[in-house]
Specification:
- The protein has about 210 residues and is of the alpha/beta class.
- The protein folds into two domains: about 5-90, Uridine Diphospho-n-acetylenolpyruvylglucosamine Reductase, domain 2, CATH 3.30.43.10; about 95-200, Uridine Diphospho-n-acetylenolpyruvylglucosamine Reductase, domain 3, CATH 3.30.465.
- Helix content is about 25%, strand content about 15%.
- The chain is built from eight helices and eight strands.
- The chain has helices spanning about 1-5, 15-20, 45-60, 115-125, 140-150, 155-160, 185-190, 190-195; strands at about 10, 40, 65, 85-90, 95-100, 105-110, 165-170, 175-180.
- The chain has a four-stranded mixed sheet with strand order 1-2-4-3, with helices on both faces. It has a four-stranded antiparallel sheet with strand order 5-6-8-7, with no helix packed on it.
Length: about 210
Amino acid sequence: MKKVVGENNVSTDEAELKAQSDSFFSTHHPPDPLKQKPKALVYPSSTEEVAELVKIAHEYRVPVIATSGFTSLEGQAMHTRGPNSIAISFANMHKILKIHPEDLDMTVEAGTSWQDIDQYLLSNDDTSHLMFGPDPGMGACIAGMVSTSASGTNAYKYGTHERKCRQLDGGFGRWNYYQNQATASQNQCRLRHHQALYWSRGHTRNHH
């Protein structure tokens, strides 16, 4: 994994590992925090690196938990297979890559927060009339929002987060968004693995 992301992007620091196994917001905490923590923390910087890390974990049957904003309430960050698991953090993947205002469409990386997206839209003349509909917990990022379909109270008016996603990159590291509701034909054409990621509640993040 060090060959994939570089030695400086793999950490075994005890404080960092402990921080990866629990969060302030969660209502569920590790029953055995001394054991239920990752063996290492890895910081990829691209979709391709994420894909390579998952391949390595799959080859050696190492469980993986991916993390972004740490705002989930249901204990998704718990390393139930620790200390033999690893954590993949999307902290280095927070870029807004493309935006097409005329199509109500934008491409962002997994570690981008919904607040950063909203701020970006407001601060540009071409997009100041637009908004990102979902409003989950403060600090929530796209990766976690995909995993839990976190949508916030705005879902009542603008629809759930799941309805906003058009495409997921194969490495699970970058997500493509649009703001208007999907048509029936778009819903029918969605890939099954796209649907499986939503409401996974973390289950698809554990590779055994």
